[in-house]
Design a protein that fits this description.
heterodimer; B: mainly alpha; Rna Polymerase Sigma Factor, Chain: A; Arc Repressor Mutant, subunit A; 2 domains; 63% helix; globular
C-alpha cells in the first residue's frame, strides 16, 4: 500500500538523519523533497490570529447543519 | 519576503469554542496542513493567513454539504487548492510571469538520487520557498500534497485529477526539478 511505503521511506531517511546527526550535529539529510517539506511543515507555526479571526467570522454566522448523511444516519452532532 | 516563524516551541492552539465542537476539531486536526499548503503554494505568509481563514470559513458554511465520501482532510484540500489557484489566476491576470519550464530543471538535475543535505536548518524555509517558486504550479502542488503523510497516492491523484500511476511518474520528475532548484539556493 502506498501509504505505508511513503511512511517507511520517511523512517529510513530519519535513520539516515540520526546517523548524520551523531557525526555532524548541524547537518541534516532528507531522502527527497517530500521528506524535507514534511520537516518544514512540522516546524512551521500556524499564526494563532487565524483561529481568532475564524472565531469572529463564524460567530456572526448561523450554526452549520450537520452533514446530510449524519442527519440521515443519526450522527451525534446534529 | 517575510518568513513565518518556524520555531517548534510554539504551536497555535485553536480556541476551544470555534462555533461548534465539530468545527473546532476540524480546525485543530487540519489547520497546519492547510496553512502549510497555502504558505508554500502562495509563497506569502500574509496571503497564506488570509487563505487559511477563507478556506475554513468556506468549510464552515458548507459543512452540511460534506458527503463523507472523501476524508475531511481531502475535502479541505480540495477547497484550499481551488482557493489558492483562483488567487494565483487573478495575480497572473495582473502580472507578467515568465513560463516555468520544468524540463529545464529535470534535465539540469545531475545528482537527484542523492539525499538533499542541509547544513543549516534555520534558513531552510526560505530555501524551500525559493525552490518551490521555481517550479510549475503542477509540480509544486504535487510535492506539497505528497508530503502530507496522511494522503495516499490515490487521494493525491483524485485531488490533482490524475491517476495514481501518473502521480508517481510526475512525482519523480518533480523531485528532480526540486532538487536541482534547491541546490541553486545554497
Amino acid at each position: 500500500m502506498k501509504h505505508q511505503s511513503k511512511l517507511s521511506e520517511e523512517q529510513q531517511s530519519r535513520q539516515v538523519g540520526t546517523e548524520q546527526q551523531t557525526q555532524q550535529p548541524a547537518a541534516r539529510e532528507f531522502a527527497n523533497a517530500e521528506e524535507m517539506l514534511r520537516y518544514d511543515a512540522a516546524h512551521t507555526t500556524v499564526p494563532p490570529v487565524i483561529a481568532q479571526r475564524l472565531q469572529k467570522s463564524t460567530g456572526e454566522l448561523p450554526q452549520p447543519k450537520a452533514a446530510w448523511w449524519k442527519r440521515w444516519f443519526g450522527g451525534s452532532n446534529s | 519576503m517575510n518568513e513565518p516563524a518556524t520555531a517548534c516551541e510554539f504551536v497555535a492552539e485553536p480556541p476551544a469554542d470555534l462555533a461548534s465542537p465539530e468545527f473546532s476539531s476540524l480546525y485543530a486536526e487540519n489547520n497546519r496542513a492547510i496553512y502549510y499548503l497555502a504558505l508554500r503554494f502562495l509563497g506569502d505568509p500574509q496571503k497564506a493567513e488570509d487563505a487559511t481563514h477563507d478556506v475554513f470559513l468556506k468549510a464552515f458554511r458548507k459543512l452540511d454539504q460534506f458527503r463523507g465520501e472523501a476524508s475531511m482532510r481531502t475535502w479541505l484540500y480540495r477547497i484550499a487548492i481551488n482557493h489558492c489557484q483562483n488567487l494565483c489566476r487573478s495575480w497572473h491576470d495582473r502580472h507578467v510571469f515568465s513560463n516555468v519550464d520544468d524540463a529545464v530543471w529535470e534535465n539540469a538535475a545531475a545528482k537527484t538520487d542523492s539525499p538533499l543535505r542541509v547544513l543549516e536548518t534555520k534558513e531552510l524555509g526560505q530555501r524551500i520557498q525559493k525552490a518551490l517558486d521555481g517550479l510549475s504550479d503542477e509540480y509544486r502542488l504535487l510535492l506539497l500534497l505528497v508530503a502530507d503523510a496522511e494522503l495516499s497516492y490515490e487521494q493525491v491523484g483524485a485531488l490533482v485529477g490524475q491517476s495514481p500511476d501518473a502521480v508517481r511518474g510526475k512525482l519523480h520528475r518533480a523531485r528532480k526539478a526540486f532538487a536541482a532548484l534547491f541546490e541553486k539556493t545554497a
